[in-house]
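Final report, section 2: Outcomes. Of the targets proposed, ABC-type glutathione-S-conjugate transporter is the one most frequently requested by collaborating groups, and we therefore present its record in full.
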Amino acid sequence: MLLATLLIQYERLRGVRSSGVLIIFWFLCVICAIIPFRSKILSAKAEGQISDPFRFTTFYIFFALVLSALILSCFREKPPFFSPKNVDNNPCPEASAGFLSRLSFWWFTKMVIHGYRHPLEEKDLWSLNEEDTSQSVVQQLLKAWKKQQRQAVQHKATVEFGKKVSGEDEVLLGGRRKPREPSFLRALLATFGPGLLLSMCFKLIQDLLSFINPQLLSVLIKFISNPTAPAWWGFLVAGLMFVCSIMQTLILHQYFHAIFVIGLRFRTGIIGVIYRKALVITNSVKRASTVGEIVNLMAVDAQRFMDIAPFINLLWSAPLQIILAIYFLWQNLGPSVLAGVALMVLLIPLNGAVAVKMRAFQVEQMKLKDSRIKLMSEILGGIKVLKLYAWEPSFLEQVQGIRKNELQLLRKSAYLNAISTFIWICTPFLVTLITLGVYVCVDPNNVLDAEKAFVSLSLFNILKIPLNMLPQLISILAQTSVSLKRIQRFLSQDELDPQCVERKTISPGYAITVHSGTFTWGQDLPPTLHSLNIEIPKGALVAVVGPVGCGKSSLVSALLGEMEKLEGKVYVKGSVAYVPQQAWIQNCTLQENVLFGQALDSKRYQKALEACALLADLEMLPGGDQTEIGEKGINLSGGQRQRVSLARAVYSDADIFLLDDPLSAVDSHVAKHIFDQVIGPEGVLAGKTRVLVTHGISFLPQTDFIIVLADGQVSEMGSYTALLQRNGSFANFLRNYVPDEDQEHQEEDGVEDEEVLLIEDTLSNHTDLTDNEPVMYEVQKQFMRQMSAMSSEGEGQGRPVSRKHLGPSEKVVPVTEAKASGALIEEEKAEIGTVKLSVYWDYAKAAGLCTSLAICLLYTGQSAASIGSNVWLSDWTNDAMVDGGQNNTSLRLGVYAALGILQGLLVMLSAMMMAVGTIQAARLLHEALLHNKMRSPQSFFDTTPSGRILNRFSKDIFVIDEILAPTILMLLNSFYTSMSTVVVIMVSTPLFAVVIVPLAVLYTFVQRFYVATSRQLKRLESVSRSPIYSHFSETVTGTGVIRAYGRSQDFEVINNRKVDTNQRSCYPYIASNRWLGIRVEFVGNCVVLFAALFAVIGRSSLSPGLVGLSVSYALQVTMSLNWMIRTMSDLESNIVAVERVKEYSKTETEAPWVVQDSRPPKGWPTRGEVEFRNYSVRYRPGLELVLRDLSLHVHGGEKVGIVGRTGAGKSSMTLCLFRILEAAEGEILIDGLNVADIGLHDLRSQLTIIPQDPILFSGTLRMNLDPSGRYSEEDIWQALELSHLHTFVSSQPAGLDFQCSEGGENLSVGQRQLVCLARALLRKSRILVLDEATAAIDLETDDLIQATIRMQFDTCTVLTIAHRLNTIMDYTRVLVLDKGAVAEFDSPTNLIAARGIFYGMARDAGLA
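The predicted structure is given below as tokens.
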């Protein structure tokens, strides 16, 4: 008592609000006091008087006080006054819940009720407990991992040291210790060990408790067999069974809760560690694995760890349970148990073999799945190119080829699965059969009575679980070990050396110095830059020039510390701002892109926008600077993206600016503006150190000095005038492109030459060979301006994007609303409410209705066989004794065996049927999705982030492939088990019918509440999961920029926030399962209680065999009731995958590829005439017209240049020609044939385009030139010869089979553009469209391309969208577009003479 008082006070001071220890203490006090309570009353009655009144009264006062103490301690107290204030507005009630509430998960009830009344939303979720947040978990794990790395380094050092010392001894001692790798597993254990220990304690108690019930069952059967035993004895046993079950339930769920939370932390920690690693890996590592693979580490492998958590403790718990079960069985049946155990042991290797085989299939399947997803993501990235070239069929075939192999593997593993299910069902049965058979046959005196049979049966049922789990455990361990290796390999990859650029010291007066620096992109690659010596004084403007692929971008990367330094020293003093060649834009508002994590200073911000010429664009964007920019800047044009990227640098107000060709993506007059306002000697950045990579010759005279690079070395360095006088390579280069003075007077000729001054702009839109930002496939989804309503294209700018109806779940944002928010990409909506029955029906139809029906029938048969065998057993045990033994045991055994084997066969058959059905469903659903996506119009891809479409192809298809079938099987299993239990108990003790109704009501009630909540939690979880991955892939693409600005830490915080948001829905989901489990198992425990009670009540009329049968069935029911709800809700949350796949299989498609009735004549178009008649077009319904009432006629063989301001509708016009955009009114005729009447492929395959972004797919060069294999080897070499790639390709050992990496990474942008030219030359169609194709190339390559086009396409009609007027000055006619209408259309000379818009543009460019 004294102890209790002290404890109370101590806990109150510590702020404990409800103490478990005290509750248990008072509870035991009450229990113990009940006995003297009763006996004192009984003795007083017997004696007729109270012998010791004082003692008697004090005892009853004491009892009353103890009882009240127990009752009071059950309530929780208010928090103490001095406790820290809870800042959280929605804290998790678990933290403040009382002991009993935690034990029974009562604290969760509030959420369940709320979820039942209204679908849960993000705001209803509780905050995470402090110890579960990313912040704390990731820090701990990182600390442990760093420690592992340190130890590994020390270990290596000692080994190396040992090596030096023991040179000779080595031979004698036979080798030495291998150097140790840092172990990620140890780091995990160090971090999460304590939590695991706690869960182990719970598990141990639960395992021990599970063996009490079979013992009680044997007592109960003895009681039934012995008519003289007192009745209270029976009731006591029934009560004890109930209490024991309840204890088991409570402890089991505490264990599960603990272990699942550890699983959550595993995932949080691993995601955080991988994210942090991705920010510091070297580029060679990044090149070796695609972004998809790195994201997979986070999506799949981290998830594996979460999945293995519940299995970890089976490593010791399974053997423990097996040993205990065998021990009790031995007591019951003696040595004949060994026969059964021997069989189990023999089956383990068989199970193991099946598991190993399945594992092998799985690895192979992962490979196929990876390659399919990679291909899909490339297809989605380059979907526009596929449409323009009409290449969809060949890519469709590639995907289907992979899918076919994938399904074959799936089919094999499904059959294996069926076999293992057969073993699974038959094992316990065969074991029981053999054990009982041996027991009966060994000695005729061995009598099989009810007690022996049913106690053994329930022990075998306990034994069944760990034995079934072992193979599962082995395969999960195998999978996780693969994941562990992958994660460990990734975490042990080389990191960028932060010391490679010295930031602190530098010789005075200089901002950047490089001393004999040699740099490479990877240790295995030859150095890209060698023996560089560069000194850049503070405040200087330095230009870096040189041909494509000479290492200009690499130089910038080297200064940022992105390359691996082989020798030399680099000093960079001061903060750095970096503008990459391909602008990296985040998916957030435009303002956030510019501020890039700094606080808003409106004056500086306005100045930055103004200098970068963004103000005009802001007016066009629907939400101004609050417009949401889509993934990878999809709703900005190339030039706008580049200017945003530049504005970010200007706003950052750094000391050093590294500008990697920012002027290439913008029009020439804009380039001039930006140079004057920002970069040049008069610009905003005057006085800062600026390193400008450029191709724009006109800017060079204004720079302080120029670095000329050639083949990775500095060939010349000096001021503009000095270099000209030196007469080196630079002077020659300039002379070729800058006109001699005296020519300028010859007016017309002069025009030709002078235009060079405007080369300022657009010279190199993208990247050099050595560009350091691997532009992964997704970045290439830079669907440039054309596609987006938000772009500054046409007059549509101010219009909001209202989005196509995407199925019942996604509401279209009302037009006004979208305008206000400026959001382009709609949030992915979580479905609300019950999954419709139609979805199940769809799935059943896909699987085949006959198959579905057959499966159900087979299951019914199987349950019947199972009940039959057990009833037969119960009948057997009641056999009368004849001469001290039972007769006809052989008949009994034979029938029992036959029924059992029949059950196994039926199960196997149904599993086989299931396999056939699910594979068919998987095939059909994927096929429908794929075909629909390949035929979706371009506008669909512009408004839907690629991640969301990919999610359908990866996550949802995976669920349909591998998760639905087992879930359905488990559901059927548990449903039939529960049904047969009820039937058996009803038959043996008809009284049971009375309680069935209330129990069933309670059960359905709990189930309804739970399913509503858990379904919504699961949906919220999957919706909050995608942002983690899309943010991650965005980060991986932008690591260069993030590191340059020193924002790694902020990005880690953003990642933490996204993971926490996801965990906030995971955590309640776990708790909801526990809440459910406790309540359902309570129902199950009641079934046990009533089965036992009614057996006791009706013991006069019951045979022990029947009692054994009904109670042993009742003991199993908890498990199957629990599984039933769980699998039901699992099925419901997983069938959503079918719903999502269906939804994207039904989106609207573009026009048919081939219209059989109206195919164009062979060889069409022969003349190449193009005519637009009153043509108008808009991007999507509800937006304004981009081209209005356009009428013009281009004769066959004419060369027409198309010019106009950004957003005049130039690109839109070409898209209309290919019917990427369909006419709003009017028509386009080619050779007099209306293009709207023929199939898309007939049209697109006869036109050729060289698009703006050169997009390549990973695969051979031949596949990139001719995916459908239409052309011969000679044709392809001929095309390469003409596109000046011949030397490059023939120098590659693989020739035409040269492997292009993802997005053509391993070619420079110039080379990629030449590949696009080669594609066009292969096609050799009558109409060629050039879309700003020359924007990414240096002058020499540009001349080559222009010359090739002039020669090879001299008889064709050429339409060129020109950035730079010099390319089109010799064209037949020039079309000037303004606001989507024809402003001028005539020959260049006439237009200049007319002094209209074109004259103004030419004058700006110095051509008139």
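Residues 170-176, 739-822 have pLDDT under 50 and may be disordered.
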